[in-house]
Design a protein that fits this description.
This protein is α+β, with helices and mostly antiparallel strands. Among the domains are: about 110 residues, Winged helix-like DNA-binding domain superfamily/Winged helix DNA-binding domain (Arc Repressor Mutant, subunit A), CATH 1.10.10.10; about 120 residues, 2-Layer Sandwich (Alpha-Beta Plaits), CATH 3.30.70. The longest helix is centred in the middle third of the chain and has 28 residues.
Length: about 375
């Protein structure tokens, strides 16, 4: 069986090695290992920490950390002291020696970051910092998020940089924990049938909680319906395609049609709630495209596409149905489906003339005028 997704862990490991290659000469010249420098930087940015907190923050195993801290204490880089009367708990802090060493290393370290910024782009590098913080928050459990936020809140006044870290991480925690609630609040007015001014005499279909859960997933607050295919087309064409999919073996519980107004409102909600991770990926760009098509009167048909057979049946049924945009949302990727091709009306939210596309079937953004 083949793999659809790239190896994310291996990709991150390769990036880590490339980045560390720029810093290793500085560490070696100052007699520090990578693990020792991680601990020094963590303590500089947060203040004193318990060993278990260093384990979580620096990614060093507990058994390894014991030896690393013992060696750093011998070198005069850290001090360990008992916390109150509890002899089982220790607090690790920096010494004047390690602070002085870090201060001497700072210009060289910052020069490396300047060169990295020049090579990959300073704004891209800053977005990457935010994206990684956000990913850590999104992949952590709620208790871990609460502990991290609490700890950073208590220690965040140590340095301006640590305060910035606190604000960014707390924003990530809030984004991860509150995205679904904000989505439902933004979408609540659509629970009752509403008049669609584009189609006099017709009302928007009422969405149930089960339909929202099945078809309108979000990722960090932004529309990302994992396991579904999304097709954008005129309302009459959407209903005709829905009937054709029924004939192709799709059940009613596997299909959802949203009116142009519902589609545009949901996409605008996504754009308002977008976070850093969304800006780095393609989901926000697709949201903008769908919203512009909806503003021009297109509806959205969401189809459960759980396997390749479902996709094949979907593509056969969609042929010749006037599809303007077609996407299939996988867990870690958005696949362009080879149906539909049409310019998008209205002003483009992008400064360039066109957004580069991977396939000619993709809808294109018209340039701003």
């Amino acid at each position: 069986m083949g793999f659809r997704h790239r190896n994310l862990a291996m990709l991150l490991a390769r990036v880590r090695e490339r980045v560390l290659g720029h810093f290793r000469p500085i560490l070696q010249a100052n007699g520090l290992t990578e693990q020792q420098w991680r601990i020094v930087r963590a303590l500089l940015e947060t203040g004193p920490l318990e060993p278990r907190e260093i384990v979580a923050l620096c990614g060093i195993s507990g058994p390894s950390l014991t030896g690393v801290l013992a060696r750093m204490e011998e070198m005069g880089l850290v001090a360990r002291e008992r916390i109150g009367h509890d002899r089982r708990r220790l607090l690790v802090s920096l010494t004047e020696t390690s602070r002085g060493l870090a201060e001497r290393m700072a210009p060289e370290i910052e020069a490396v970051y300047e060169r990295l910024g020049q090579r990959v782009g300073a704004q891209r590098l800053e977005r990457l910092f935010g994206a990684l913080d956000e990913m850590l928050a999104l992949l952590a459990d709620d208790d871990a998020l609460a502990r991290r936020a609490s700890r950073l809140h208590r220690l965040g006044s140590a340095t301006p940089r640590s305060r910035a870290m606190t604000e960014r991480r707390n924003a990530s925690v809030d984004s991860a924990a509150g995205a679904r609630q904000r989505w439902h609040e933004a979408d609540s007015h659509r629970r009752e049938p509403a008049h669609d001014p584009r189609r006099p005499g017709e009302t928007d279909p009422t969405l149930t909680d089960a339909q929202r859960e099945r078809f309108l997933h979000t990722r960090n607050g932004v529309f990302y319906p994992t396991g579904n295919a999304v097709l954008v087309l005129r309302p009459d064409d959407a209903r005709a395609l829905r009937d054709a999919l029924h004939d192709a073996g799709f059940g009613s519980e596997e299909l959802l049609v949203l009116s142009p107004r519902q589609t545009a409102d949901l996409m605008r909600s996504s754009e308002e709630q977008a976070g850093v991770l969304n800006e780095l990926g393609s989901e926000l760009e697709n949201v903008a495209i769908i919203r512009q098509l909806a503003d021009d009167g297109s509806a959205m048909l969401v189809v459960r596409a759980k396997d390749e057979d479902a996709e094949r049946r979907l593509l056969r049924a969609a042929a010749g149905k006037g599809v303007r945009k077609a996407l299939r949302y996988h867990t870690l990727a958005i696949e362009e489906l080879p149906v539909g091709s049409e310019d998008i009306p209205g002003d483009s939210p992008y400064a360039s003339g066109e957004v580069p596309r991977n396939k000619p079937s993709d809808a294109r953004l018209k340039p701003q005028r």
